[in-house]
Amino acid sequence: MAITIDSSVWEPNPFTYIFLFFSCCFSIFLFPHVSISNRTSTVFDHGISSSFLRFQRKFLLLYSLSSVMEGLWLAFGEFELASYGVGREQMVMSLCYRFAASLFASPFLGVISDLIGHKKLCLFFGILHFFVGIWMRVSEYPSIFVTSICLSLANTIFSFSFESWMVTLHEKQGHRLDSLNDTFWLMAFFESACFIASQMFGNWLVGDNFQKKTASTAAIFLATVCITFLSRGWAGNPKAISFKDYSMSFYAYISGDKRIWLLGWAQACLHFSIGIFWILWAPTVVADGREVHLGLIYPCFLGSRMLGSTVFPWLTSGHLPVRTEDCLVYAYIILGLVLSIIAYDYQEIGVLVALFILFHACVGLILPSLARLRTMYVPNEFRGGMMGLSLAPANAAILLSLLQGGYYRNIGNAALMAFGVLGLLTAAGCMHALKQWGKQPYNNWHKQ
C-alpha cells in the first residue's frame, strides 16, 4: 500500500514534513506549561504517580511494538504478494477475504475478549502474526486466503483488545480515571508514528538486495518479541464471568441504552470512511495518468494524524468551553466535506494531498475522543463486545463496496465516497444527539 519502487514525477514539498514535525512538537511541549499552571492532570505533571507512569510506558511500549507489526504488513503486504505473481483481481479478492473474515469474526472476538480476558486475545494477536510469518517463510507460494484471514483476525483484535485491556488494568490498579485521556491520545500518536517507522523499515527491506522472505523473517522476530513481552509481567482480566451471565447483562445494558448505539454507529461510520479512503486514495491521486511518489505521500497522512491526536489534550483540559461531543460533531462534518470534495470536484495533486492531510488530522482527533466517550458510557466488562459489534456494519459496507466497486465495477469511486460522506454526516448527527441524551454517563469521569 505504501511502498513504491518505480520513479515518479510529483512529490510532496519537503516543507510539509517539517511543518508536521514541528507542529507536533509545538503542540506537545507547549501544552504542559499551560495545563500545569491550571492544575490539569497530564503525563508531564510531576504530581502523577510513578506507578501510573510505569504502567503507561510499559503499555505504550507493547502497543507500539504491535503497531509496528500491523504497519509492516500494511506497508509491505501488497508488494510481497505482487512479488509472488498475484494480480489485481486476486489482490481485490484478498481484501474481500479480509473484510469478510472481520465481518463475521469481530462480534465474536469482542465477546470472547471480554469473557476469557483481553490479555489472552492480545497473545493470540501475536501468535497470528507469528503464524503468518512462518507460513510466508516456508511456503513457496503461500495461500492468499490463509494469510488474508489470519491478518484480518489480527487486525480486528488490534482494533479493540489492546484498548479494552489497558482500560481494564487501569481501573484494576486504581489510577486516576481522567489520566486515561493522556493514554488515549498517546496510543493514537504512537500508532501513527510506528506506521511511519514500519514503512521506513519496509522500504529498507525492499532495497537493492530484496528477497521475498525478508519481510516474513522480520514479522517472525517482531511477533516473538511481542509474545515474550506479553507473557511476562502482565495481568489478565480481574475476574471471569459465565457466558450466560455475560450475554444477559450485555443484551440488557447495550440494547437498552441508546447512547451506546449512537456511539457504536459513529465508530462504525468512521471505520467505514477510513477503509474507503485507504482503498481509493491511490487511484484518486493517479487518476488521468498522473505520476506521483505514493511512498512519500503516505507519511504525510500519518504525520497529520499524529498532529490531530495532539490536539485532543487541549480540548479535554478544560481550557475551551466545548464538550467532547461538540468537537466530534465538527470533526465529522469536516471529514464529510473533505471526502465530498475529493469525490466530486477534480483537484490537482497538491490540493488533493492537502485535503487528505486535513482528513487524517480530524481522524487523529476523533480516535482518542471516541475512546474517551466509550469510557464514559460503556461498562468496562462490555467494552470489547461493544467495539467488536460496532465493527460489523462497517466491515459489511466495505466488503459490499469492494465487491460492487472493485471486483464487479458496478459502482464508481465517487459513489463509494458518497456513501462514506453520508455515514460521516449521520455520525455527526449521532454525536449531536449524544450530547442531548448523555446527561448521566455510566462512569463519573471526574470521580477519581
From TrEMBL:
The keyword GTP-binding does not apply. One of its GO terms (molecular function) is molybdate ion transmembrane transporter activity. Pfam families: MFS_5. Signal peptide: none annotated. Keywords: Membrane, Transmembrane, Transmembrane helix. The chain crosses the membrane at residues 15-38, 59-76, 91-109, 121-138, 144-162, 183-202, 214-235, 260-281, 296-315, 327-344, 350-373, 385-408, 414-434. It comes from Acacia crassicarpa (northern wattle). One of its GO terms (cellular component) is membrane. PANTHER family: MOLYBDATE-ANION TRANSPORTER, SAM (S-ADENOSYL METHIONINE) TRANSPORTER. The keyword Metal-binding does not apply. This is Molybdate-anion transporter.
